[in-house]
């Protein structure tokens, strides 16, 4: 069975032309088909409502402007977001850190690594002065040759699960348990934590309002697409929750 939207076919030629724009997707074909189905559906709706525009993109934007409208974020919502995301608006915060990486490989199981990491951590909690020595012995990171030293790090320079622990530690503190990331297990120590400067609410209020507006708009757009998909006769493909680059 071919793919169609309210009787309009999504051709193989259209898929072939569109897929070049989705090569970095986890599933390029699936994302391409979803994009084309939603785009066809939106253009059909734009035709139904008489949306004008210089090209297809302009007609879809005109449709969104009419059908997907959200209120501006009020000051109370902006203040609440500011209070809950102060790290995002703090600049100049740095940590000097070192770690010992126990890397997962096909030959070494995670369970074995966890046992080794916990044993090394237990020793370091008794004798923290051995950190550099243990890093040179056990770490699978090139930094091991430097005693595990990672230098100075700012927010955004490491993977999120590593960063969440990293910026909670104080000077000289070793994380109480190994930190698991896609690279393996890390024993982590902060040598020095330099506090940053928190920007005032007034300085970032407009930026926060724009962030909240974008979040609200994307949720509203997602709901709108779900409604359109629910009413449409779409054959040959199932759209899970109207997922598509159109709603990112």
Could you characterize what this model shows?
There is one protein chain. About 45% of the residues lie in helices and about 15% in strands. It is of the alpha+beta class. The chain folds into two domains: about 5-75 and about 205-245, no CATH class; about 95-195, Chitinase A, domain 3. The strands form three sheets. The chain has a four-stranded antiparallel β-sheet, sandwiched between helices. A three-stranded antiparallel β-sheet has the order 2-1-9, covered by helices on one side. Helix 2 (about 30-50) crosses helix 3.
Present the secondary structure layout.
Layout: E1 4-5, E2 8-9, H1 12-18, H2 28-48, H3 56-67, H4 75-84, E3 90-91, E4 94-103, H5 110-126, H6 131-138, E5 149-154, H7 160-166, E6 179-181, E7 184-194, E8 197-198, H8 201-231, E9 234-235
Antiparallel strand pairs: 1-2, 1-9, 3-8, 4-5, 4-7, 6-7
Helix pairs in contact: 2-3, 4-8
Key attributes of the depicted protein:
alpha+beta, 9 strands, Chitinase A, domain 3
Structural class label: alpha+beta
Which residues sit in consecutive blocks of at least 5 with pLDDT less than 50? none
Number of strands: 9
Radius of gyration: 26 Å
How much strand?
Answer: 15-25%
Number of helices: 8
Largest sheet: 4 strands, antiparallel
Oligomeric assembly: single chain
Number of domains: 2
Note the run of SSEs as H and E. EEHHHHEEHHEHEEEHE
Global outline: elongated
Task: Give the strand order, joined by hyphens, for the main sheet.
Answer: 5-4-7-6
Mean pLDDT: 92
- Give the terminus-to-terminus CA distance: 29 Å
- Helix content percent band: 40-55%
């Amino acid at each position: 069975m071919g793919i169609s939207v309210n009787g309009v076919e999504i051709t193989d030629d259209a898929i072939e032309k569109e897929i070049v724009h989705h090569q970095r997707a986890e599933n390029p074909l699936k994302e391409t088909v979803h994009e084309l189905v939603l785009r066809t559906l939106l253009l059909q709706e734009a035709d139904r409502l008489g949306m004008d525009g210089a090209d297809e993109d302009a007609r879809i934007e005109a449709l969104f402007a009419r059908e997907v409208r959200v209120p501006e974020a009020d000051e109370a919502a902006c203040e609440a977001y500011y209070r809950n995301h102060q790290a995002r608006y703090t600049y100049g915060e740095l940590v000097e850190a070192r770690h010992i990486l126990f890397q997962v490989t096909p030959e070494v199981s995670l369970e074995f690594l966890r046992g080794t990491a916990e044993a090394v951590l237990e020793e370091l909690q008794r004798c923290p002065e051995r950190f550099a020595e243990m890093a040179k012995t056990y770490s699978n990171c090139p930094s091991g040759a430097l005693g595990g030293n990672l230098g100075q790090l700012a927010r955004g320079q490491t993977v999120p699960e590593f960063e969440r622990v990293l910026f909670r530690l104080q000077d000289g503190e070793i994380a109480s348990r190994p930190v698991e990331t896609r690279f393996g297990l890390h024993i982590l120590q902060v040598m020095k934590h330099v506090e940053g400067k928190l920007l005032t609410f007034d300085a970032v209020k407009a930026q926060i309002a724009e962030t909240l507006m974008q979040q609200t708009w994307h949720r509203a757009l997602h709901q709108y697409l779900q409604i359109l998909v629910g009413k449409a006769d779409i054959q040959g493909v199932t759209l899970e929750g109207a997922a598509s680059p159109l709603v990112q």
